[in-house]
């Protein structure tokens, strides 16, 4: 596996933000998740909840509700505007004020023609959905009292609105109030956080901790389930309306099922069945996706809980999945200069790594001769959050992009002073980039937009736009997600359709494309010597593509023929980064959130029966036998959770950790609960 | 011998009443529970027992009401019979030899009943006929490997399904719903099961304290269950009320939890005593009963108020305190609930009261070290009580407390006088009171190598200090060669104290604390030690770990005799010279009763019971009997009770008693038998107590006849005939009589639990001539050895 000096970095104070809304699109099998910082993430259900796209957030944007209309995603928040997200360019398409004060909830009708927004002023506003915009149609209601939650009946003619202390049902044809629920609680105010409109009943979850079933026509209470002593914040129902979920402030998700009282007879009843407790804080959003229930809340993690537990065999689909860390790298590393650039939503931090002169046996902690130092704290101009950033390998250039613009800085380091100057006159075409990266010799900056790769030449005097590269066979633009460059000659760029384009940077034209695989590209890297492109997909398949020969390498074919080990394929976090060991060209270093792995391409692949994690057993074996039992994959779980693993030029490994405890201590206090024996 | 059959072993009580779930009669007036070989009928309102249903010859394993007639009850027993009783009158109606080894026979209405023989679930299809008795031919095996726990089988609504949990922690349902609780690390093994009476819902209890309600059994991919969680450790039992509106659960926490079936709310009834082992509900749902591990049944109303408590003899893990008789109340005293001494009436088979010794809140927690009462002793009048409690398994953290209690006349209870923390540095091995009333002195011996004498202080000393009474203090600490003392014993008049130090017995003068002499008989450490009484007070008896029983003459300081038998227990009768010795041979216990001065035993009884006799005690009779018969003479003044552990059936202990109260004279024997039989015929309950209360004062048999109420006497002609016959003394006649009595006793089988044939005294002489010769030899060699010791 090799010996490295490891920089164990713990000064990246990455803090994820809480989940405040979720929407699942059954047709495209995409999950949209809105966070409290205003960002929206898209996950693909078919691809094991791989994070496909991130729309960066914006200050003062709070999203209270998300709604899919076909393939379009709408969001609304307390700013009082309804916005549509441009999922190709990863920014807002448009936003329109509803003129009703803060919006608490939006829903679309089952036909997909109208949007309803519940506003602070007590009105339900109906909007017609047009091709490129939405148009206000009419108001319903109008009495005082905010509308917290909305639900549309499947026939499309009735809307239930949850308010403080009551539920109103509007008839869309007449625009009249059909019925209203009686006062929910005698003593104190009761907020109906969530309503569901089933075919024959209305279900509400309220701040008294109750899930109530109401008769639609008479507005009378049918059944009352006390779920928690705190609030029931969200409800979700399965498509066939036999299973219902409620998320509570205690962090529990409670399932209700419509069951036969006696098997085989007509009489049915909603019965509270299972309780899942995977969250420490409030569960604010729930989404039901056929066989899984997805929950998210204040503790910032997305939990995917499979519902089918009667399966005999274990697979990735039947196990619990927790998504806590971003599935892209927020750290960029200047390999020559030994600098780390940390990307926060509203600022960037540049750190110089520490140094050591000590030597010691493997596993020991070396004395630090120079402490790591924070060189720069760069605040972002404007309200938009950073979507990507990069530092040049020589450490002289820093670039970042928001949805509104790209900024490039030149960094001058004297002995102690650090000065920074903004490079003016960036080309107009490069207004917004999904990815930024520098060439290895720091002479060029590459920025990708949804349609092209732009090349900017960097000189000490300033910058000059050189060229725009477009893929050969580009039918329609797609958001480019990741890109990788090798010794200045080739550049590979993958988009969210998992198409990979390779450009020759010397000739400044497209070189070739890689065959499309069904799963999204989670990480890739070009080997600096052999110019082989190593691609890792979200389902953990590994391919190696020789750029010069424009075909898969022999090793890649062998991997596909023999198949990867099931332990490797069952891993639930995708690989974030691929780097190479400059000393040993056979070594490929991969890492995800919980481990990093070195693949030795010269060793045989593990077969199905062999032990995957075999480092300990190898250690116990004598030297002669060790080679016989060793295989290509060597995992290291010493450092976790990982945000970045990279190799510096001086053969040392940088490991950026973010301990879970640091994140949980920074979360707000959860609701107080009486624990047994305390 | 003529009357050899008159001494017999009677199981007199103390058996567990929490083995099987009790049954409440339909009108909620009676509570039926299995207790040893009997079925006892209690009144739910007064807590007293009303009837005893006797007849089974082995442990009753299960009872259930007859679904056809709710005034009748079926009981199944390990003797292989199923009996039908009328419990309001206490009459046996029918005996069915149902199955060999019927395990917990569970019966339901037109439904398969389950004798899971070899722990296999068998369904018997009972054809629907009008006849009372139906021969069941179709037996189909449903499931192998059933858990032996009766709570692991439950019946569903109608006969749609039954649910059982087998030993491999799998949950089976009729249509082969199989749920394996084999999640790694999770302690979700099933412990009990109960079915909802109306809905298709099954409740299971789990080892981690969760209760799961299963529904929707025919789902292919999903389990549908609700989890209820209150218990923090194992759920022992579950029960739905007949309407199905509430679910009752109980576990080790001794808290009854009442769950609302359709709502997620619960009510709890805490502090019920021991952990709950069974819950049963009356047919109308108005009464619940909970059986507890401390041999108690609590009757609870549906509004969760305890209405009655039926308490049996509490048996913890072991009887650390020997059996002790309280001289004042004549009650048997032993440790019961943790940290308590229980006073148990032998005559009434009922706990009188509990004395809290430790006086600390008892909190159940696994692995927690609790205080245990390990020794208890009364003085001659029962006005003083000394107790020892200890805690800690390891020597380093052992905590020992010695407490002295005074009897308070006004409070009618024992009041703490003195507490001595750490009286010894190591465990106390024995404790005894000074036998006479003049001096109140306690001697304790411990493993730290010394014995201590404790004296009650003088009145005058304490009056000066202004305290409220004299207290106890240490008077003397004695040692002998750094050896560990094991036993101590006072002679009957209190003039000598014998303390055994491993192999050596030392004799001390308790007034001057002067070592008088030492006695030794190697090899083997001294296990038991006791002085002879009355005419044999010059003898000192000891048993050793090397299976020797030795008798020393204290006048000559020499070994009088010794014999080699595997003695487990040696007990002296406080009122006579008699000694009882229990020996264990081939898994059976034999009993010898002898006088130290006589070479031949008074009484021998082979195969007294299976297994070891753990504890035994002579209990003085309230009125001594006048009995001229040689073999039962030793029982005139006291009775011998012993406590056994019967490993064969359950791990429960049974009380067996050598009791001759019914067989004092031939006349009384006949009279008593006949009266009992008659009363039984009349359907009147017969209790031992009544028989004893009518014993004549002057012990003349004729007076007994006169004292007996006329209406219960047999016809005069019959009596006369027998009376005359009984006076005849002839060899042939007595033999015939023996046969006759044998027959009668057979017929009265219902009265007796077990009768063992006595053996003639001649058959087993204790010491043969050869042995005597050997003994003499041993004595001679021993002498020289002893003198050697004294020289050194």
UniProtKB/TrEMBL annotation, chain A:
One GO term under biological process is: maturation of SSU-rRNA from tricistronic rRNA transcript (SSU-rRNA, 5.8S rRNA, LSU-rRNA)
Q: Which InterPro entries match?
A: UTP4, WD40/YVTN_repeat-like_dom_sf, WD40_repeat_dom_sf, WD40_rpt
Any one Gene Ontology MF annotation carried by this entry is: RNA binding
Pfam families, alphabetized: WD40
GO CC terms in record: 90S preribosome; small-subunit processome; t-UTP complex
PANTHER family in the cross-refs: U3 SMALL NUCLEOLAR RNA-ASSOCIATED PROTEIN 4 HOMOLOG (PTHR44163)
Q: What is this protein called?
A: Cirhin
Automatic annotation (TrEMBL), chain B:
Q: Which Gene3D superfamilies match?
A: YVTN repeat-like/Quinoprotein amine dehydrogenase
Note the segments forming the WD repeats: 53-95, 183-214, 228-269
| Entry's Gene Ontology cellular component terms | small-subunit processome
Q: Spell out the InterPro entries in the cross-references.
A: Beta-prop_WDR75_2nd (IPR057644), WD40/YVTN_repeat-like_dom_sf (IPR015943), WD40_repeat_CS (IPR019775), WD40_repeat_dom_sf (IPR036322), WD40_rpt (IPR001680), WDR75 (IPR053826)
Among the GO biological process terms of this entry, one is: positive regulation of transcription by RNA polymerase I
* Stored Pfam families: Beta-prop_WDR75_1st (PF23869), Beta-prop_WDR75_2nd (PF23769)
Q: What Gene Ontology terms describe what this protein does at the molecular function level?
A: RNA binding
Report biased composition (Acidic residues) as residue ranges.
736-747
Keywords assigned: Nucleus, Repeat, Ribosome biogenesis, rRNA processing, Transcription, WD repeat
Protein name (database record): WD repeat-containing protein 75 second beta-propeller domain-containing protein
User: Which gene specifies this protein's sequence?
Assistant: WDR75
UniProt-annotated location(s): Nucleus, Nucleolus
The opening ranks of the lineage are: Eukaryota, Metazoa, Chordata, Craniata, Vertebrata
Q: Which organism is it from?
A: Denticeps clupeoides (denticle herring)
Quick one: where's region Disordered?
734-754
Q: Where's the WD repeat-containing protein 75 second beta-propeller domain?
A: 323-647
Q: Which domain of life is it from?
A: Eukaryota
